[in-house]
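Quick one, T. Sequence first:
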Amino acid sequence: MSSTTRRGFIRRGLAGATALGSLSKAARAESNAEALNPHPAAPAVQTPAVSEFSITPTPVRTGFGGVGFHAQMLLADATQDFEDQVLAKRWRELNPRFARIFHSWLPDHPGTRDPKVLAALARQMVMMKEGAGTEIYLTTDAPKETNSNEDLRSYASAVADDLEYL
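Structure tokens:
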């Protein structure tokens, strides 16, 4: 899938199965077009790409701290026992250098705090940081679309309030 196609899906709010369904429809339409025209134009001649690389005695870049993960654990629905005995232990075993996690809102209400999800996110961050020393990158899931400066200020204030809580 090209980056232009991905950006188009994102702009239209399509993700996951919806995006795949759109791709399937596009592929079927292309296949039908090929069936109607059995003698398409000859493909353009491709020339080999030239690449340069160097081999160094150091296999890993300087400053590389280790692997990391996107780690959305959805602890709002986990029991404390499962969180402690399964997730935290596995996280310590993986010992990742960094993790990217989502800051989520109340479902279908971007910009509105979901106290249960926010409390679970705070627990997840503490478990990651204290359990394995993981550096955490927080990104917002489903950001609110703002149409005015006032909407933008209100949304930014809600994000700041949640970050302060965390």
